[in-house]
Amino acid sequence: SKELAYEMGHYYNTLGKNDEALRLYTAAIESDPFDERAALSQVQVLLDMGKNDEALDKLTNIVTFSRNPENIELIISKVLLRKDEVQKAKDILLRLAQETDDSEPRYMLALLAFKDKDYPTALTHLELITSTSIDFEDAVYLQTHIHKETGKVDKAVTLLRGYIAQETTRRPLFYGLLAALYHERNAKPMAL
């Protein structure tokens, strides 16, 4: 059965028997070329084996029949980053950020800009990540870090206080970040 093949493939992969896992996933794909789960499992094994080019070829095929091609393109961008093809990855991420509501492309673009010390671009991407997004806390953390890094601690404090003031944007992490900023300024009573 397919389910058993998936389980066995996963088991072989965890044991480091990648060739056996690959054989099972390849057989599943041969019986159903549009089996996205088997195809993505095959890609994961290829990535684990360091066969990035082969994985990228498989992903390029999967995107043509996937029910969620945006997710596949996001994976493609991650493989491109792994291969150090940063500009190609950025091009995909920029398009995804413009065409979808998914926050992950924006967050990844912000991380890439942060790595390049392009703080204004990083902040632009981070500010577009909404409080309902799974990446919201990480986005605020990175915004705080950038403001601190650029000597704009007051801006970081204002940002965090603003988020804490509203129930819809309040997160436990933000209290910790704000307390750390107050502590660094020797405002220990505020930190407490």
Core attributes:
12 helices, elongated, 0% strand, 192 residues, mainly alpha
Summarize the biggest pleated sheet: none
Total strand segments: 0
Unreliable runs = none
Question: Which structural class matches the secondary elements?
Answer: mainly alpha
* Cα-to-Cα separation, first versus last residue: 58 Å
What proportion of the residues form beta strands (DSSP E)? under 5%
Following the backbone from N to C, one meets helices and strands in this order, namely HHHHHHHHHHHH
What value does the average pLDDT take?
Answer: 95
Bin the helical content. Answer: over 70%
Report the oligomer: single chain
Helix count, DSSP H or I runs of 4 or more residues:
12
Shape: elongated
Query: Which radius of gyration do the C-alpha atoms yield?
Result: 21 Å
Task: Give your account of this protein's structure.
This protein has about 190 residues and is mostly helical. Helices cover about 75% and strands about 0% of the residues. It has helices at about 1-15, 20-30, 35-50, 50-60, 70-80, 85-100, 105-115, 120-125, 135-150, 155-165, 170-185, 190. It is elongated and about 65 Å long. The N and C termini lie far apart (about 60 Å). The model has no long low-confidence stretch (mean pLDDT about 95).
